[in-house]
Amino acid sequence: MGDDSEWLKLPVDQKCEHKLWKARLSGYEEALKIFQKIKDEKSPEWSKFLGLIKKFVTDSNAVVQLKGLEAALVYVENAHVAGKTTGEVVSGVVSKVFNQPKAKAKELGIEICLMYIEIEKGEAVQEELLKGLDNKNPKIIVACIETLRKALSEFGSKIILLKPIIKVLPKLFESREKAVRDEAKLIAVEIYRWIRDALRPPLQNINSVQLKELEEEWVKLPTGAPKPTRFLRSQQELEAKLEQQQSAGGDAEGGGDDGDEVPQIDAYELLEAVEILSKLPKDFYDKIEAKKWQERKEALEAVEVLVKNPKLEAGDYADLVKALKKVVGKDTNVMLVALAAKCLTGLAVGLRKKFGQYAGHVVPTILEKFKEKKPQVVQALQEAIDAIFLTTTLQNISEDVLAVMDNKNPTIKQQTSLFIARSFRHCTASTLPKSLLKPFCAALLKHINDSAPEVRDAAFEALGTALKVVGEKAVNPFLADVDKLKLDKIKECSEKVELVHGKKAGLAADKKEFKPVPGRTAASGAAGDKDTKDISAPKPGLLKKAPTAKTGGPPKKGKPSAPGGAGNTGTKNKKALETKEIVEPELSMEICEEKASAVLPPTCIQLLDSSNWKERLACMEEFQKAVELMDRTEMPCQALVRMLAKKPGWKETNFQVMQMKLHIVALIAQKGNFSKTSAQVVLDGLVDKIGDVKCGNNAKEAMTAIAEACMLPWTAEQVMSMAFSQKNPKNQSETLNWLSNAIKEFGFSGLNVKAFISNVKTALAATNPAVRTSAITLLGVMYLYVGPSLRMFFEDEKPALLSQIDAEFEKMQGQSPPAPTRGISKHSTSGTEEGEDGDEPEDGGNDVVDLLPRTEISDKITSELVSKIGDKNWKIRKEGLDEVAGIINEAKFIQPNIGELPTALKGRLNDSNKILVQQTLNILQQLAVAMGPNIKQHVKNLGIPIITVLGDSKNNVRAAALGTVNAWAEQTGMKEWLEGEDLSEELKKENPFLRQELLGWLAEKLPTLRSTPTDLILCVPHLYSCLEDRNGDVRKKAQDALPFFMMHLGYEKMAKATGKLKPTSKDQVLAMLEKAKANMPAKPAAPAKATSKPMGGSAPAKFQPASAPVEDSVSSTIEAKSDPRKAKAPGVSSKVKSVQGKKVPSKTSLKEDEDKSGPIFIVVPNGKEQRMKDEKGLKVLKWNFTTPRDEYIEQLKTQMSSCVAKWLQDEMFHSDFQHHNKALAVMVDHLESEKEGVIGCLDLILKWLTLRFFDTNTSVLMKALEYLKLLFTLLSEEEYHLTENEASSFIPYLILKVGEPKDVIRKDVRAILNRMCLVYPASKMFPFIMEGTKSKNSKQRAECLEELGCLVESYGMNVCQPTPGKALKEIAIHIGDRDNAVRNAALNTIVTVYNVHGDQVFKLIGNLSEKDMSMLEERIKRSAKRPSTAPMKQVEEKPQRTQNISSNANMLRKGPAEDMSSKLNQARSMSGHPEAAQMVRREFQLDLDEIENDNGTVRCEMPELVQHKLDDIFEPVLIPEPKIRAVSPHFDDMHSNTASTINFIISQVASGDINTSIQALTQIDEVLRQEDKAEAMSGHIDQFLIATFMQLRLIYNTHMADEKLEKDEIIKLYSCIIGNMISLFQIESLAREASTGVLKDLMHGLITLMLDSRIEDLEEGQQVIRSVNLLVVKVLEKSDQTNILSALLVLLQDSLLATASSPKFSELVMKCLWRMVRLLPDTINSINLDRILLDIHIFMKVFPKEKLKQCKSEFPIRTLKTLLHTLCKLKGPKILDHLTMIDNKNESELEAHLCRMMKHSMDQTGSKSDKETEKGASRIDEKASKAKVNDFLAEIFKKIGSKENTKEGLAELYEYKKKYSDADIEPFLKNSSQFFQSYVERGLRVIEMEREGKGRIPTSTGISPQMEVTCVPPPTSTVSSIGNTNGEEVGPSVYLERLKILRQRCGLDNTKQDDRPPLTSLLSKPAIPPVASSTDMLHSKLSQLRESREQHQHSDLDSNQTHSAGTLTSSSSSTTNIDDLKKRLERIKSSRK
């Protein structure tokens, strides 16, 4: 028993794992007790057992296992962490518990599974149980089914997903084991209980006996809807509530609940889609056209069988539908018509929403076919059209239906009305908006007066249904003229109607009417058969239909369908009032007198028509008093106004009486219940008086009051028609003026634009100018509401008039319409209705567009035209398209019926000829504009194919497609696009272009939507796959779009959708979701809705851009008018509670301070880079204009919306300048606190400020300049560097302001220009300022010239761009300017240059007129300064700049940061590369040029200053070691800052100090050798390789040349580097990360190393070279094959181009290529052939065959041929499909070559022809040598003389001399200058040295120009001026002298160096477009390096500064070593003494 007692002492968790069963039993028992005791579900105790629970349930001992199961059950029930164990425990239960013989064990197992479901882990449990069904052991299968059944029975079908269970049911029914079959039967019965008939279709194929048994069981089931009896944890309160109800005995919830539960499952969802198109009989299309009806019938029957499949796979059914449509429309045999209709029904049912795109074609045909009388045909057609209706929306087919309504045939009319009635039943108040209801009601009202009773009844039914769906309030306005009898009939019908959307109706549905709907249910059930045997089904069936019928809006929209429910703010009395108003009868005069005398004093009535005006006046006063005291209900308005109109009425001659009268009318209208009848009495008189000078205002006041009582639309219409039916122009113009004002006060809703427009046109044609002016003003006001479409009505006016109208519109642009201040209180209801439209914010606007006269063009779309568009010959296709464009152009506005055009155009969207695709896109764009919003119905069949075009490989085609999609979306809104699966299907395609364009588009559109259809969720899985796409741009776009998807779908839904992803992907995506959650923008819902309500839902919502500050205008108008009555208007007050002081209520909430507390700039990662890319790719407008047009402002606004706080943006783009001031004040406040944000949005801020420069308001300008000064100070402190983009979109506009008349502004601008030089190189500023000197404004010219002088003074001659000569010539032109100030400025500038540069100036200026020259000489004498003050200033002037340069990496982050005196600018400007050049501390840069130029007097400060700095510099060389050691531990930890640690270590690899570099390499090697850690290097590979080959260059150029260095050290460093690389290239996943540019430079470095003769001489050198050999092989095998192949091709091209490159180098590159060719058979499939062929194309473009043959070696041409031959052999003819990336295939012979290879076998012909051509070439050479020597040499010398081709020329000359050693080049040199001769000789010498291999510098262009410049200590302007001055003589002795000094310093021949950059950059431009040189990549990497550096270095700033020149110049090599500097300084000092 010894060991027994042992385990007793163990803790519980160890007992549970003990090998003795007793120990485990005891452990489980104790664990059970512990579990029962723990009260807190989050207690840490639970976590101890987390890993053991699986052992609890899978224990091998049956007795122990039982106890374990009990304990596990308690654990799962109570532990918070239990969910984590779900998968393993449930799979344990399935495999180890369900096979136990003990029933108890099985029960406990099932309980555990159910408990997991209760704690919300249902999906995981279900997954494991379904896996269990595949087990071989029948016991386990039975138990799994039983568990699923119990789960379903207890939790219900919402929690347990039925689709996967139903999928496996048929298999279970086929099982051999009876137990399994029985259990399957039980679960089938349980499933049926939940989803009823939806289960039938999936089980239709099981054994008929089993099916019969099931049917019997199903019948026995109770009919009530089942309810779950057990709930998830999150739903447990619900359970409690249910129990309470049951105990109370009521089942109130029942009704609501079943409504909730039943629609859950839709049979359709459970089915597998069947593909039928391929199964159509082969001869179907022939047969369907056959003459014999039997054959046609056979064809149709074949289709009928196929479409019986209840769910069909999506595909292109266009042809099939077309054929069926033809049968329905044209076939004479009615039986076949019915059959075809059945087929269409089947298609619609099986395809559902996917059939929607064909609906528009078929509906008119079916409706017109209703002329058939035969009941079976009619029934088939009814079923077809009902099924089709459910696949689309009423909106989409409304046009077609309405067109048929006017048909003469009564049957057609009747059936159409019945169809409308049935359709309405499927609608809700939100899917049946006013805009749709209006035309339908109008058409139906005609029908209720029809002669045929059946037509009338059908119309009543339809109207009744509409009434039921949207409520009386919405329908009543349309029924105004219907008499009582008919109105009652409509109401009666409405009561009978039963809606599909779950409304309980009084009576059962009228059978005949409802047949199609149950038919539909059954159809989707029993294989398309319309068998309605189960009459109990319609109820759930109908409900089930609900979600599918309308997937558009969220279910909440069901609510408003209660009568009156549409208006939430609804004022109930208003409705009663309105009906009363409408029917107020006209009273006779007697009754009026009677009524009036009851309320007015008797004298008043008697004196009304007194002849004495005073009596009349007194009478009016009494009248007024009486009216004021009357109560609203008692006031007989009509009687009173009739009294006023009584003789003399409106002919009153005394103006006082008249004024009084008019005032009383206003009072009555305001105080009484004033009806339209009363208004009719007075309006005529009012219009008559409106033009009266004295009474006009009173008349207007009365009109306004009437408008308020009777609604503006009606009043306005009356007034306008009255005004224009009389002749008085004054009245007309004043009426128009009144209307303009009234519209502003009342808003625009409900106005009949069309009626006004005809009046306005009359007014515009009037002879009286006042009338015309008023009309134009009215148009301006209407423009505010209607927008640009208003202009369409007036396009045929005279040009002069049109220009006036345009000018008025221009004035209104950018203004937002004021909020309505009148008419709100009464009519707010109508406002809400429009707001309720939800998806129709453009209601008002649409009205206007609807009014345009539209042309019917369907008759012009003939079948000939359609066949033309589809012709085989592209020219004919083009003709067809041209015709279509012509038709649309001519028609301007067209009706939506365009016949067969959509199918024809759709075919052209994938035309092989891209020009036609673009033309089609243009036509579609035209079509959208021409058709207006009606284009909606074509979205599915034409819009979605346009989206497909976004995947085109050609940029311009994609851009055109995007433009078209946007044009469509503008007309349709986004709802149509997002509905259905089409968009998600597009996103599913794995086309990177399509994905990035589509995601970009969605990211732009989604934020502007208030709501989206639920189908948006279908895009999410594809969005997730895009997040992990191979293509970086796709990933980027997907990340950008993520927050906007989340904005609509919510985080929970998005997170849930990750469930289907792989675990690794899931974690990544969830992390991104978290991030997106933080950036998620708010929905734009609130402001848009809130304002459209008070505005009466009027048009503004449409015509303002989404972000327009609508609400601002609400509040500001309230504030301005501050009328207490208006502030109370309910529409507004609901939103704007109170208007505090002057504050404008902010957008989203009234808690203003909270709202504005957040950051004003939101940092969007990579936002700025993306914007620059967009601008580069011309996706957006380039910021370049003379005055800012609206599109620029809009664009900026859109770009800002994502990164600037909403409220600030509203201030920034407000029309009032004070808001701009406010915005600037806020920006100044936040400048310091939000540096990151400011820098992130800098481009946008600067662009916004340029807009402010165009404002006329000085205060804004001053404030803007103030902000700019602070901004640039901040940027220079942050050491930020302006990008090219920022500079070019800002500086030119700032320079405009330098010519401002106000002195203080000019001063500010100059100060800003000065500060800008700290963040943007002066040499780049120079051209901008130079451009400013060309201005017409003389002040600007003078200031710019002065600024140029300052730049030269501060920074020396280097700033002069493009060359000092050109710049000075330009400046000198201004000496002759007519303005004195400009002349002076020009002279001063040139004097400044003279002071810096001495007499050289005169040469640079060139020839001046005598007068100018004498002025200049005079001025120079006067200034009498000695040259040489300049550079001194720099040190004093900008000291803070120097201090900050802690290391050159710092500078590199800024791009080419310009050091003040840096001569590097020179090198940079020559090389044409913006790469950062090597930065050397200023102390060493300062003086070189100066010292050499200047022999003037000594200033003693300078040596001291440098001396002082130098002392610090001698110490730091030893520092790096400890620093690196400190880093090392971090690196091993691999914790959070791994990336920055790696960055830091990588940056040290390139260090100039060998030890530092070796240490860094060892650390990286450690990581690479450990498999688990190597992953950390991922993402850093390019960076590491760049650092490595920089180190290789450093060794090659510097260390190897350094005598003092031990060569062993170098060998050690080499072996470290090579070892590291070999480790790296053994890890394939990392090796593949290396990009093309980097591989190219790496291979260049390695091959250069292999050829380095200096290494071979060392004793271990051979070993190094062998290792390099091995490494190169590894690189070739392991890198990404496309990248390495591409790199080698580019490298070969470069090496052949570089004349100085050794032939051996090219040979090695070719050997590498041969090796790659050998690998090709294995790697061909992983290679991106398109890219390789592009590289070959470029190679062949640069080296045409002739040029290749001139190479000394024949290898290059053979290599190329071998490569192409191998590719051809491997790919066959398919290779020609891979030329997609080549834009112009004719530029090289590639395509021709490939075609040739395809034709001939190259074996014989190839070699022969090669030899011949070679012979031929040599013959030509000989001829050339004899005959054309002179021409040849002349050509060469021409090249040498030209700036660009010098190098090439010299090389050719060298070759020539070598070949013909006796050639005489003397005659050519004789005529040239001494300087040119020595230049040529020197050049030849250099080449000779290189060819002999003496040159120390690797000379292939592979070394980036930047590096080559940096090999030289700060280069002076040596060669630049040679290059620049184009061979003008500049005193060669000066240069030769300087050259000697430099050569001597560097130990190498410098000309070659300085000369090469322009050549390389020149050659590499055409040659390497696709390969980014690695130095380009440096920029991105170096900013990372810098950050990591700072982290590790900030501890010791001082030392940082001191050794920044020495050790830390790591990224690029510095050859300056300290001894050398000391010596040089000594030399300088001594020479000065």
Q: What labels describe this entry?
A:
globular, 2033 residues
Can you walk through the features of this model?
The protein has 2033 residues and is mainly alpha-helical. The chain has 115 helices and no strands. Helix 23 packs parallel to helix 25 (453-470), helix 42 (769-786) packs across helix 43 (799-812) and helix 56 (1032-1049) packs across helix 58 (1063-1079).
Overall form: globular
Q: Report on the biggest sheet.
A: none
- Into which percent range does the helicity of residues fall? 55-70%
Going by helix content, strand content and strand pairing, the class is mainly alpha
Give start-end ranges of low-pLDDT stretches: 250-263, 503-583, 825-846, 1085-1154, 1426-1492, 1494-1513, 1515-1536, 1801-1827, 1894-1929, 1949-1971, 1995-2016
Using DSSP, what is the number of strands?
A: 0
Give a quick rundown of the structure.
With 2033 residues, the chain is mainly alpha-helical. The protein is built from 115 helices and no strands. About 20% of the residues have low confidence.
Topology:
Blueprint: H1 2-8, H2 12-15, H3 21-37, H4 45-48, H5 53-57, H6 62-78, H7 86-97, H8 103-132, H9 138-155, H10 162-173, H11 178-195, H12 208-220, H13 236-248, H14 252-261, H15 267-270, H16 284-287, H17 293-307, H18 318-330, H19 334-351, H20 356-369, H21 375-389, H22 394-405, H23 410-425, H24 434-447, H25 453-470, H26 472-475, H27 484-496, H28 511-514, H29 516-525, H30 538-549, H31 572-583, H32 589-599, H33 602-607, H34 613-629, H35 637-645, H36 655-671, H37 676-689, H38 696-710, H39 712-725, H40 729-746, H41 753-764, H42 769-786, H43 799-812, H44 824-836, H45 843-851, H46 863-869, H47 874-891, H48 901-908, H49 914-931, H50 939-949, H51 955-972, H52 975-978, H53 982-988, H54 992-1005, H55 1020-1027, H56 1032-1049, H57 1051-1057, H58 1063-1079, H59 1085-1092, H60 1100-1103, H61 1110-1121, H62 1124-1128, H63 1130-1133, H64 1152-1157, H65 1167-1176, H66 1190-1201, H67 1206-1212, H68 1217-1229, H69 1235-1240, H70 1242-1253, H71 1258-1277, H72 1284-1288, H73 1291-1296, H74 1303-1316, H75 1322-1332, H76 1338-1355, H77 1364-1373, H78 1380-1397, H79 1400-1405, H80 1410-1423, ...
